[in-house]
Design brief:
The protein is globular. About 45% of the residues are buried. It has 10 helices and 17 strands. An 8-stranded mixed sheet has the order 1-2-8-3-9-16-10-15, covered by helices on one side. Strands 12-13-11-14 form a 4-stranded antiparallel sheet, with helices on one face. It has about 400 residues and is an alpha+beta fold. β1 and β2 form a beta hairpin.
């Protein structure tokens, strides 16, 4: 318990916020600050094949101690934190023996983590929680995953009597901006299957995720003095509103759950002359996913016919696909994780991810890679928290997966 908490708090204090506007890899140099710390730590643990490439991808190996030929297990987490909120000067707080009441994160700014707003807090009465100070995110997504992986591996090093196969460790940059797998060398990693330790609440086990695309709509207007604008001005901002109004209002994130897809308006900016809108398009069902993209194309086509064929410029880029299509043939690794959780006293919550992970793309790159929990809640914001017990149970789940492999093959 003490080790995983100490690790996590240490990592959380290093700013590793990624930048979606950057074209470099990693998108921010500060991610390398944590990568260098982790590299040194793994070398001190005497792991083998510790390497970091020019793009900040960090890998290491715990060699097999078995006389048998066992499959190679991969354990993966990401180093960056979300661009949505500052990861600078993170100051984690430990709330001992949570009493079920409001937690004052920042008295001066009156920032409160309340079970009224977040009813899930009630599940952790009597437990120790790690929270933010109310001014930054916490970074449990995914520094908790890193801490849990290294604590589990350290346990195996300290207990050499536990039989295990070769274990590969991989820490990636830029997962939060959808690029975590861009330059991941699956062949060099050399695992037969892997788990991303990047999920949320205790027990989460995910092998299904959204099919995902980004749509960017650029709108060309015509600016004319408003005093003489009749039948001449074309206000691109109004065209942007019109475009948005033709998407189904019930298919937005705030109105959907479980397997329901959505169009998520994430950005709108512009003036009379030109505007730009960006949408995330998401659906677990591949057919419905394609239908959503077709709808966006049809709206763009309709508006170009209505106003001018050059008014609307649309680009749609697929980001990742539902890993279920690739995991289905390797379902035993989902069952392996379920069994490991039960042995750790954790109730498996097998559910679809309403998002994506590095594992989704890695699964399409030839590395089957479900996602398991870290224990965190309210990611990407000032109300983020993680129960210490959940972190410990994540460590125990990882250890149990490793223990089960020799008896399962």
């Amino acid at each position: 318990m003490e080790k995983v908490v100490e690790r996590f708090i240490g990592y959380a204090r290093t700013d590793t916020q990624s930048d979606e506007d950057s074209k470099r890899c990693p998108s921010t140099n500060k991610q390398l600050d944590l990568a260098k710390v982790l590299k040194e730590e793994m070398e001190e643990m005497e792991l083998e094949e510790v390497s970091m490439d020019d793009n900040g991808y960090l890998m290491a190996t715990l060699p097999s101690n078995s006389q048998r030929q066992l499959p190679v297990l991969g354990l993966i987490a990401h180093m960056d934190t979300s661009p949505d909120m500052s990861g600078k000067n993170v100051d984690p707080k430990i709330v001992k023996n949570y009493d079920g009441k409001d937690i004052i994160l920042n008295k001066k700014k009156n920032i409160i983590l309340s079970p009224i707003d977040f009813p899930g807090l009630k599940k952790y009465v009597g437990l120790d929680l790690i929270t933010t100070d109310g001014t930054t995110l916490l970074g449990a997504d995914d520094k908790a995953g890193i801490a849990e992986i290294l604590t589990a591996v350290e346990y195996l090093i300290d207990n050499p009597g536990i039989e295990h196969g070769k274990i590969r460790i991989g820490f990636t940059p830029d997962e939060e901006i959808g690029r975590g797998a861009d330059k991941f060398d699956v062949e060099a990693f050399g695992a037969d299957f892997a788990y991303t330790v990047d999920g949320g609440e205790e027990g989460e086990l995910e092998y299904e995720n959204f099919n995902a695309a980004m749509a960017v709509i650029e709108i060309k207007g015509r600016n004319v003095h408003p005093g003489t604008a009749k039948d001449q001005m074309i206000n691109s901002i109004h065209l942007a509103y019109e475009f948005n109004s033709m998407l189904p209002p019930h298919e937005r994130p705030e109105h959907t759950e479980a397997y329901e897809g959505f169009f998520h308006l994430i950005d709108i900016e512009g003036n009379v002359e030109k505007s730009r809108i960006r949408y995330l398009i998401r659906d677990h069902d591949r057919k419905k996913f394609e239908e959503k993209k077709t709808l966006v194309r049809n709206i763009a086509g309709f508006m170009n016919k209505k106003y001018d064929k050059n008014r609307i410029k649309l680009s749609i880029k697929d980001q990742y696909y539902n890993m279920r299509e690739k995991i289905a043939d390797h379902y035993h690794i989902v069952e392996l994780a379920e069994k490991a959780m039960k042995q750790a006293g954790v109730n498996p919550l097998v559910r679809p991810i309403r998002g994506g992970t590095d594992g989704a793309r890695l699964s399409y790159m030839g590395l089957p890679c479900p996602n398991i929990f870290t224990g965190g809640h309210n990611y990407h914001g000032r109300y983020e928290f993680i129960p210490v017990r959940s972190m410990v149970n994540s460590v125990n789940t990882i250890i149990n997966i490793i223990k089960l492999i020799p008896v399962s093959y």
